[in-house]
Structure formats: structure tokens, C-alpha cells
Amino acid sequence: MPRCSYEHMPSEVPMPERRPLVVANWKMYLTPAESRREAELIRKRAAVLARSVEAVVCPSFPLLPDLHAIFFKSPIVLGAQDAHMEEAGPYTGDVSVLHLQKLVRYVIVGHSERRRLHGETDEIVARKMRRVLNAGMHPIVCVGETAEERAAEATLEVVRRQVGAVMTELPVLELPRIVFAYEPVWAIGTGAGTPAPQPAPGEAAEIIGFIRKVASDAGGRRYAGKLRILYGGSVTAKTAAAFMEPGVDGALVGGASTKATDFITIAQEIADAAR
Ligand code: PGA
């Protein structure tokens, strides 16, 4: 496997064991019946996965209680796809951390589809992250540049701004409790069947190293070394292992995670590559 140069990574950052993490973001792809069926299939293979990787499934909100029951006493962990930045109030259609607290361990915040289609700013994302943490769950904060920003060579600037906004809301002691996902927007699948392009694994690892550096500068090296950072964007069973370069702690998977067999293969690939 090619090694990342760690150009952006201070050599003193300690690298303790960080358990690999693989997150299925089902978005709005599956019907309720399909969601339950795929969850049952994942549960049957859970024992194989749990030994070396933490596997998280994020279904649509109304499916959370059903999947909670399906995954009960299994090592599969449940996550939510979003949460509101306030705990309660006049927010039609939104979901509070209080509704999620007893059901999930992780909450995705700042996904590019939320930023783009629901007008979520860096400040909103940072407040959501804080709300999720305060409610005792782990936020998975998505960052990444658009195709236009990449073409303008603004990737590092954009990622620095997005990560920086989160760091200003984050007490340093809490840094190991959050997860970042580097998801270049141009690499995310559209669901239309045409495969999106992907960065070279080395390029993704460089930017993930940069995210750790930004977190380290803001929150201290000790804590940044414990932070898990995932890659996301059109990960499949075929490409997952290649993205597991040093410093990359797993994957956030959309389209390919909606088939239980593919998700299990991806999780196994990630576990094997991390060994
Ligand atoms: P994708 O989605 O794997 O379908 O590209 C990833 C994501 O948006 O989290």
C-alpha cells in the first residue's frame, strides 16, 4: 500500500489505536421494508464485523425504532443522518437530539446534501455538532470542497474554514469524541447510476492529514491524535481498501451501503486494511 507523506501532519502527533469505523448513510434510498430487510441481513453477519471494526447504520428517522430493535444485543451501532441545532422549538419537520438520544450513538452533521439543499452554514453545522455532543452522542462532521472549489485550487482553504468553524465550538477535551468525514462533494454518488469520480487515495489521505493538522493546531496534538477521520465519496467494495491509507480511520458510505452484502464486504475490507 502506498504510504501517505504526512506532509501536513506534525510528527509529534501521537497515533494511539483508533478503532476503524465504517458508517452506512442510507440517505432516502430505501423503503421501510427494504431497510428492515437489509438491517436483518447485516445483523446476521454482525459477529464477523464486530471483532475489528465499528459498524454504524444510519437509516431514515422513522426507521430508527425498528432498526434499534433489530440490532438489539448485536454489535451494530445505530446513527442518525442529521439533528437540529436547537433542542426544541417551532421547527416544523426537524428532529431534536432529545428524540435521538436513546436510539443512536452517532449523528451525521453538515453532510454536503444538507449544506447545499437545506442552506446549512458552517456556523449551523458547528452548533449542531455541539448540540449532539452535549446530548451525549458522537457527531460525524462532514467537510469537503465542491468541484468548482477544487478547480479554483481552494480545497485546503475550504476544508480549513469548515474544520475551523467546528473547532471554535469544541472544548478540546471533547475532540476525541467527534469524527470528521472528508467527503469531496464532486465524488459523492448522485444515485443516478453513473459513477462519480474519486480522488486518488493518496490525495484523500493528504487532505485527511491536513484536517488532523487543523484540529491539532486548534485543539492540541494530544487530542488530535485520538480523532477519527473517515473518507467518503463513492466508496464501494472494490475501492474501500485502497482508501485506508495511514491516518485514514474508515469510510462513510452512501449508495454502496444500501446493499447489506456490499456493506459487509466494505466493512471487512476496511478491517483487514487497518490491521
Ligand atoms: P456515496 O455517498 O457513497 O453514495 O458517494 C457518500 C455520502 O454522501 O456520505
**Shape annotation:** globular
- Please compute the radius of gyration using only Cα atoms: 17 Å
SS-derived structural category: alpha/beta
Cross-sheet strand order for the largest sheet: 1-2-3-4-5-6-7-8
Give the tally of β-strands: 8
Order of helices and strands: EHHEHEHEHHEHHEHHEEH
The amount of beta strand, in percent, is: 5-15%
- Taking all residues together, what is the mean pLDDT? 92
- Number of helical runs? 11
User: How would a textbook summarize the main sheet?
Assistant: 8 strands, parallel, barrel
Question: How would you describe this protein?
Answer:
The protein has 275 residues and is an alpha/beta fold. The protein has eleven helices and eight strands. The chain has an eight-stranded parallel beta barrel with strand order 1-2-3-4-5-6-7-8, surrounded by five helices. The longest helix has 19 residues, at 201-219. 49% of the residues are buried. Mean pLDDT is 92; it is low at 1-16. It binds 2-phosphoglycolic acid. 2-phosphoglycolic acid binds at residues 25, 183, 188-189, 232-235, 252-256.
